[in-house]
Structure formats: C-alpha cells, structure tokens
Specification:
Elements (H helix, E strand, L loop, with lengths): L10 E2 L5 E2 L9 H8 L15 E4 L16 E4 L1 H6 L9 H4 L8 H4 E3 L5 E3 L7 H13 L14 H21 L5 H11 L2 H7 L4 H9 L30
Antiparallel strand pairs: 1-2, 3-4, 5-6
Helix pairs in contact: 6-7, 7-9
Length: about 240
C-alpha cells in the first residue's frame, strides 16, 4: 500500500484563510487526486473512472464528519464495495494502518501470487501483525473471488502489474528497457508497491519510482536519502510504522 500525504485542509481565497466546505464530499476528489494521484489509496489500482470518497469513519454513524477533510481518502469501487459494513474498531488510528498516517510500504507485502499479507520484514510484534491483518480484512484486500464467484478484479490487476514489472525487469537486465519507460509503465498500471518490490535491487529504478511526481511520495517522509523505507512515526515507541 503506497503511503500518501493529503496535506492540510484545503483553503479558499487569496490568503487561504477559510477552509473549503465539502458538503458534497465528491468536491474533495480533485484536491485528493492533485495531492496524491489518481490511485486507490487501498489497493493501489490506477482509477480512470468511478473513483470515490472513502469516509474512514462512516458518515452514517458519524454525520458530523461526513464533510471533514481528515475523514477523506480516495477509494475505488471494488474496495468500496468490499469494505466491511461494521464501524472501524476504535481507536481506529491504533487498530489499523492508514496510508496517510503510516508508512504502509513497511506494513504490507504483495506476494507474486497477488496475495496481500503483513510485511514480516518490518512488522515484528503480534500487535503489528494483527493491525495489518485488520486493515486487510476491513477492505477485503485478501479477496480472490467476488460474491458472485468471479475473480476479484483487484487481484487480476495486481497479477497483471506483477507480470509487467517482471517483464520490464528482465528486459532491463538485458539492456532492452530504459528507466523512464519502466516508470511510465508503473504510472500507467498503478500498484506502486509491486513495482518497488520487483525493482528493489536496482537502485536507479527504485529511486526513479520513488521520485516520480505522479506517485507523490516526496512529502511523506517514508524513505531516507538512500531510498530505504523508514518509520513514519519514529517517536511512537509501541509502533513507529
């Protein structure tokens, strides 16, 4: 899961004093896209249409937060339809990993089979593993088939991204693919985490992926100067991720 930086609540006017009011929360979508890219904040699919606002705390139970910037994330229709109907367990910031609050690159791993699992390299305690699994379960990121028995499109798209990333890796190893072409391919498929994992050992490509403006990672403080993932909350003793 790609970490994001939503930034502060958008303001209006020349001096940017008044906060914009999102009584129609769909009006927040352009601001989120402009700051984080047109990718689902959960499954990482590139969304060309039908992207929606995810209310972290459901508006049906928390109507006062229905127009609150801090409660917004971008979500594709697949993640939206697979989200559990229940309210996120409170305190939700401590029970789940969130792309705008945590370094989710360190929290999750995507296997070649397309399965999303807790990242055993960085998550070292049972509590961290439980937190990652809770997030996966909340948005049905572990689904392989739909309720109708069809393959989950998110899984199919992850597998296609993996295939393309591995193909580009092999081509790059033979001098048949350039770094800009690889980054462009990643931009077009989405699934930043897949591309970063496949090219983890190729420093120049890894750096280009992280620096790509379309992925908006520069302000997340989730990578150090050598492009290694680092904890986003280092002062949190219990869970710095």
């Amino acid at each position: 899961m790609r970490p994001i930086d939503k930034g502060n609540w958008p303001t209006k006017g020349t001096h940017g004093i008044r906060k914009r009011v999102f009584n129609d929360w769909a009006n927040a979508i352009p601001y989120l896209i402009g700051r984080t890219g047109k990718f689902c904040h959960f499954c990482e699919r590139k969304v060309t249409n039908a992207i929606a606002i995810e209310h972290i705390k459901p508006k049906s139970h928390f109507p006062r937060l229905s127009a609150h910037w801090d409660n917004f994330l971008l979500i594709c229709n697949y993640c939206n339809s697979h989200k559990l109907a229940s309210i996120p367990i409170s305190p939700y910031k401590k029970k789940y990993y969130w792309p705008h609050l945590n370094n989710t690159i360190m929290a999750f791993d995507i296997k070649v089979s397309g399965e999303i699992i807790p990242n055993s390299t960085h998550l070292t305690t049972p509590q961290q593993i439980d937190r990652a699994n809770a997030t996966i379960g909340l948005y049905g990121l572990d689904k392989t088939v739909t309720t109708q028995g069809n393959s989950d499109d998110r899984l199919k798209d992850r597998l296609e991204a993996y295939k393309q990333a591995i193909d580009r890796y092999r081509e790059y190893s033979r001098g048949l693919a350039t770094v800009p072409a690889i980054v462009d391919n990643a931009r077009n498929t989405g699934f930043f985490s897949v591309w970063l994992k496949v090219f983890d050992s190729v420093a120049v490509v890894k750096a280009a992926l992280i620096d790509c403006p379309d992925f908006h990672l520069a302000t997340t403080h989730c990578f150090n100067a050598t492009y290694t993932p680092v904890p986003r909350n280092p002062s949190n003793i219990l869970d710095p991720i």
